Amino acid sequence: MTNIKMTVNGKSVSGEVPDETLLSEFLRENLRLTGTHVGCDTSQCGACVVHVNGKALKACTTLAASLEGAEVTTIEGLANGGELHPMQQAFNDNHGLQCGFCTPGMIMTSVDMVNRYKAEGKELTEEAIRDELEGNICRCTGYHNIVKSVEDAAAKM
Amino acid sequence: MYSFDIERPTTLEDAVEALKDEEAQALAGGQTLIPTLKQRLAAPERLISLTSIPELKGVSAKDGWITIGAATTHAEVAKSVSAYPALAALAGQIGDPAVRNRGTIGGTLANNDPAACYSAAALASGAVIQTNTREIAAADYFLGMFETALEEGEIIIQVRFPIPEVASYQKFAQPASRFALVGVFVAKFADGVRVAVTGAAEEGVFRWSEAEAALDSSLAPESIDALEADDDGLIADIHGTAAYRAHLIKVLARRAISAMS
């Protein structure tokens, strides 16, 4: 067992968990932050993507005990009070979801993508968005509107 | 997963000591090891996380060589190895963005997946793998599928790549896993051309010496037109036959050479 301490969505959290606890399990089962979805549990689908120390990663393929002291942001931490993050608003405005299961991961990946391209001064083309979404799978195959959502949000972020 | 304990040493000495335990297994970014543990294909009693050790991190360039710390992520290599563009481009095509933010060069080399991209870069570049006890030339390092020259408990500290005059890596991604169905790395140095092939062979990465000899005379795609890659020992599975992979080797080698000229 390990006593894990980290910051999740700006709040200090801790929990006594077995060493083999995945970050996705810690978030969902200990902290009850069930917005981080577990789709495939095999690193393929990206529904569990969260940000750790500012970088997107797959929470189902990260051990919670290896993230002592980390700053984690989940889908629950994006909105500013009642005001949606521009990426969340864009998914809403552009019908960027159908069943919604992949949406938390899509949004977390897309926020990381836009931040990274802006920081590096690179142009985020439609082709680049599609390439960057390689690790996020939408079983409803709603990719066209997801790409439109990311383009829309990128212009506002 | 079976249960295990995790240790997070912050110095190399502590990590070396911890790995002397027969039941201990090194953990880098975990992008291969964690899925392996989930499938219960491995059951170490103790994982020694190597990502909190400062000596294993960072990228530097000096005297025609790039040095990359073993715990450096693929995303960092893609972003910061500007002196060796083909290597940076290779790192930027591994897995997906989230995997690249976590997976490390040391982890992939220690695992030696037969379809890993970095193995081709290391072999074609003539890289040097420095561990806590010695330096291993890439030519002596890869011993077969998931087999390397690393001893029990030996830790990769950094990997040094000589920077070639020009190089290119071309990968045909297996569409589900994004691993290389076949990947070909071609690098031209003052003393000759090296061609390394990953993804294709049962025994992992290998050099295509006939192509190297042909390209030493002339670095042009036509130089290998008369050659055929041998399909003996190549992987045959639901994604492609051995003959198909042999065909891809030549196609990708031609693409790499075209990209270099």
From TrEMBL, chain A:
Keywords: 2Fe-2S, Iron, Iron-sulfur, Metal-binding, Oxidoreductase. The keyword Amino-acid biosynthesis does not apply. The keyword NAD does not apply. One of its GO terms (molecular function) is 2 iron, 2 sulfur cluster binding. Transmembrane segments: none annotated. It holds the Pfam family Fer2. It comes from the Bacteria. InterPro entries: 2Fe-2S-bd, 2Fe-2S-bd_dom_sf, 2Fe-2S_ferredoxin-like_sf, 2Fe-2S_ferredoxin-type, Aldehyde_Oxdr_Iron-Sulfur, Beta-grasp_dom_sf. Residues 2-78 form the 2Fe-2S ferredoxin-type domain. This is (2Fe-2S)-binding protein. It comes from Halocynthiibacter halioticoli.
TrEMBL record, chain B:
It comes from Halocynthiibacter halioticoli. Keywords: FAD, Flavoprotein, Oxidoreductase. Pfam families: FAD_binding_5. The keyword Protein biosynthesis does not apply. This is Xanthine dehydrogenase family protein subunit M. Gene3D superfamilies: 3.30.465.10, CO dehydrogenase flavoprotein, C-terminal domain, Uridine Diphospho-n-acetylenolpyruvylglucosamine Reductase, domain 2. The keyword Nucleus does not apply. GO terms for molecular function: FAD binding; oxidoreductase activity. Residues 1-166 form the FAD-binding PCMH-type domain.
